[in-house]
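PROTEIN FOLDING TASK:
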Amino acid sequence: MDASRSKPRTMSIGGATFDLFVRTDQKFMKEDGGGKTLNLPIGAKVRVLDVIETCGGGASNTAVGLSRLQCDAAFCGVVGSDQWGEKLLKNLQSEHVDTRWATVVDGETSSFSIILSVSSGERIILYEPGTNEHLHDVTFDREEIRHRNWIFLNHLHKDSIAIQDDLSHALGQAAGSVGLTWNPGGAQVEQGCSAPAHLQLLGHTSLLLLNKEEALAFTKKENVEEATKKLLDTGARIVCITDGGNGATATDKNGSWYCPSKGEDVVDTTGAGDAFGIGCTWALVNGFDLPTMLQAGTINATSVLSQMGAQAGLLTDIEMRTRLQSRPPDVSARKHS
């Protein structure tokens, strides 16, 4: 980025989680009628291939990713006053993320995950939400929103959904000067996009991120085209729907674009969705068009898939711009149905 330009000011709202990766042999992954399962025999002593400690969680990942992409990134979330909370904050600070809006809760456990994975990248996550349950309106700085160029709202615990009302109000006061990327979590998806609080927030959403299954559940529609139309009708400016190895589609009022997955070797899938959203948000903050947005998201996600953990593969601004110029993924226009 040109040193003469000021950095875009972003804030990521949501969770921070300390992740312990335990990688075991592919032989424990079994095909089941409903999909794949990881089968570990009761009473057995199973040797693991790797044990890796990393930092994760939606807001932690997106704040770190945006900071590496030369944004003045801030984190708004909750951690405990324990060893994991201390490591989470130190990680954010080492990545030059502003942690003034982090809340530390005494005597409680920070969010913690044990991620069981195999060499193909598939995994099972065992988690304790911990202090992420405490992210609600009293820990949310409404005034700071007006001083940011872009907000990234990540998955929220079901008890923290009240924060959406305050965010909608703050964005309304900003009168369109602050962008919003929203990646709804399971609690929001289950309630559906027609819930009053969701309709209000969707009207302020610059970029809505969902995977295919989430989009269908959120809209109660049977296919992606119908889901996309409904979400655009609610007021979301750009609707981006990912479909794993099948790539991603982004649609606005002017058209629809598709970007395939790059299909490179997968080491670990943790954080790939966050990485995609980070790349897309970076592109929008910097004024790129929808095709470039899809390319940036795909490039960042592909990099994260190639390494263990949610943050190790997140690209820097220079790396992103270099890859966009040297080997961008193909993007094609799709006609509205």
Notes: Residues 28 and 39 are 5 Å apart (CA to CA). The chain has a mean pLDDT of 90.
